Amino acid sequence: MRIWKYACLLHLVEQEKTAKTDLLL
Known about the structure:
There is one protein chain. With about 25 residues, this protein is an all-alpha fold. Helix content is about 90%, strand content about 0%. The longest helix is centred in the middle third of the chain and has 23 residues, at about 1-25. The chain is rod-shaped.
């Protein structure tokens, strides 16, 4: 189950990076 939590966290981080990049652009 820890793998799922890690994958979910990684997905959230990627979303945040994308959101920040969109703001910069």
